[in-house]
């Protein structure tokens, strides 16, 4: 009996080996990245960052799609001498953007590329910042720097002698500059008045002139002024239209879109996040900002201010005051008026506490409550304390208690 079973077992074992070998045979080994494809991608990335003022979500390298950290690591290897680069999935750091404007020597930027490559190779994560002989550079600027160097190499066939870099990020996330619109409208109206006056003078001179040559010359001037008048009126209609935009902030509210203590609207990390969360309208943008702070900043109990808006974004934990700082800063840098409210509130626990929250101003809605301290709360609605019995003590442009 056992003798008859043995050949069957042997046959089954041999079939299993063949199947296993087959599975290994058909498993594809991904080809490495070609250095020329990586350099070609750097042209697109540097141009994208200059135009859009942000990192791309994905980068096309040859026929592959890489995330930005994986692309940056591959580029650092190419710039430091690798001809062929393995396609590795690399993690990215939390952004800690710094505004820089500096000219780097070849030795300095190659030092940055080498340190970027070595750190990433060791940790499988790109560095948040790199210290080099000329100072420090963060991940955002490092990606831009490496991409600019790669673009030069791709276009000129060699590395540059030096490389100038300025952080590709605006000072704020405003959609429109309301003050500049008012100034432009004022200037246009002044130019239109002057143009009308000149047209009237010329028309009068044409009526009383008996010289045909003079009349023809004046008519030529009049036609030029009429074209100018038409252009200025078109410009005035355009800028008057911007005044009707939900992004336009009336002069009486513009103090609520400026930096104040603990609320730096020009912090590059706050500007970057605000641009990433921007919607098509002020309401959708405010909702995105509110939801991000509520869902990404943990509540921690302490008194007064500890981190401010910038520190709260960095550490991702804060009390009510610092959460309000971050909410206010994100709104203001987006061009949405925001302010602080301090009150004495009865919470759902039954306890009474001093409390601080933000309000944002939305055209057509007025001041809208934005209390991010509890996941139950929504923009415009508070559920973790009783609004009917709680008391508002102050409405503030800035909150500066240490």
- Using DSSP, what is the number of strands? 14
What is the correct CATH architecture of the largest domain?
Roll
CA-to-CA gap between the ends?
89 Å
Tell me the domain tally.
3
The fraction of residues assigned to DSSP E strands is 15-25%
Per CATH, the class of the largest domain reads: Alpha Beta
Q: Give the integer mean of the pLDDT values.
A: 92
Brief digest:
This protein has helices spanning 2-26, 35-52, 68-79, 106-123, 139-156, 178-208, 212-243, 268-277, 282-296, 308-315, 320-333; strands spanning 33-34, 58-61, 64-67, 84-85, 101-105, 129-132, 135-138, 162-166, 298-299, 317-318, 338-346, 352-362, 366-370, 391-396.
Characterise this structure:
The protein is α+β, with helices and mostly antiparallel strands. It folds into 3 domains: about 35-165, no CATH class; about 180-245, Methane Monooxygenase Hydroxylase, Chain G, domain 1, CATH 1.20.58; about 255-400, C8orf32 fold. Helices cover about 50% and strands about 15% of the residues. The protein contains 11 helices and 14 strands. A 4-stranded antiparallel β-sheet has the order 13-12-11-14, covered by helices on one side. α3 packs across α4, α6 packs antiparallel against α7 (about 210-245) and α10 (about 310-315) packs across α11 (about 320-335). Mean pLDDT is about 90; it is low at about 1-5 and about 15-30.
Question: What are the salient characteristics of this protein?
Answer:
alpha+beta, disordered N terminus, two-stranded antiparallel sheet, 4-stranded antiparallel beta sheet, 402 residues, 3 domains, Methane Monooxygenase Hydroxylase, Chain G, domain 1, 14 strands, C8orf32 fold, single chain, 11 helices, 16% strand
